[in-house]
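Q: Fold this one first, please.
A: Sequence and structure below.
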Amino acid sequence: MARIAGVNIPSNKRVEIALTYIHGIGRTKALQLTEQLGIDRTRRVQDLTDQEVLQIREAIDAGHTVEGDLRRTVAMNIKRLMDLACYRGLRHRKGLPVRGQRTHTNARTRKGKAKPIAGKKK
């Protein structure tokens, strides 16, 4: 099992898929990395040599913000919006959708479980 950017990469998966286990690397970046380093993307992680794993690790460290640094950056950006009290910051603060989605019927992921409201008594 290879360890890249503080994450244990599953060894039985293809390199292209295994790299997506790192926060901040998706399919596109994983594909770019494998092409840039000349690694066949269909190979399994267990078939990589130590040298190739080292190349991947160095390429990620050099050119990509991943894992803890990325999470910290995103959290600081959200905190900045909340401190500014701009519209997006207020939406984050209230736990509502930020990007203009409707909230009348949807947005259960952001709003949480539905809270019953006492209905009118007859």
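Q: Good. Now the second chain.
A: Here it is, same layout.
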Amino acid sequence: MESLAFSYGAPKPIEGIRLATAPLPVCGPQQVVVQFLAAPINPLDLLVIQGKYPVKPQNSIVGPDKQTLAIPGSDGAARVVQTGTDVSTLAVDDIVILRAHCHGTWRTHGVFAAKDLIRVPSGIDPRLASILRMGAAPAYFQLRDYRPLEPGDWILQNAATGTISHFVTQLAPMYGVRVISVIRDRGTADELARIKRSLQSHGSALVVTHDELRTTTTLDDKRIVLAVDSVSDDALAKDMAARLIPGGTLVTAGFLGVSTGEGVNLRQFLWQRNITLQAFRLSDCLGKRSLGQQTALIEWLAELLTRGVLTAPALEYVHWKRGEDGLEQRLKESVQAHEMGAIGERKKILVFD
């Protein structure tokens, strides 16, 4: 097997990512061997590589210099190629995704306990299956777990061109809820107008920039009960909270940004307006549900994608063909480009050819 791996704890671990090879894994009685078909590059993966996430990589590989390297990747879709003697829940050729973070999906093959995998409907494109757990499922949880939502309610979200936000805008109307998407300004008026049209075509009822969020009167009559901050910018979060009804809920869902909102006393502001502050954690949401409920949710989301009720966000496919010249450098550059986080950048999916 081939793995894209790194030295955990190195000063600049992303720069040290390399391609390593090892024999195919051995399958135990309660395990299965899978061949990966697609694996996304998620913001969480970059935090793990940088040592900024509380969960460490759970799998490793020995590099050519005998150094132990960690395998990143928390999401991915794979095909079962071998099952252990005691496995009855999965069969060869089943398409599966992982249940938990940090088990290493940036590799061609892996061995996992059967209980740690969720089978997905065979009709779904593996590239889309690979974003079900950390793309579509979080959107569902943000709408269902943090604030009772009623038809006619409005919600605010930033990082609106991201994968989770994309699915929020499509799922919310199913519950009679409308979405206001907050985006960063663009270089030109034409580009800004194009992004707004695109987000509205995918379900956003309104799209505003941060500046417009502060100044527009369009939102004054909206019953905005929930705001989801995926940027971790206190100034932006405060402006979003200012639009909430008294007693509304602000959910911190990510740490994509670096601004601390210097001079902004966010907590005092939330207290004054009786705003509830909650932290979104995918693992907590999954932990509240049985394995059967998790599987049912993934199957439902996969069905919605297959039927076209949900559509995929804009994705960029990075092909991984074993033995191809320049493969290591191309994969490394894809990870580094994702780290830079350019405005409007598409999510990258590693596709194993």
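Q: Anything worth noting on the second one?
A: The longest helix spans residues 291-307.
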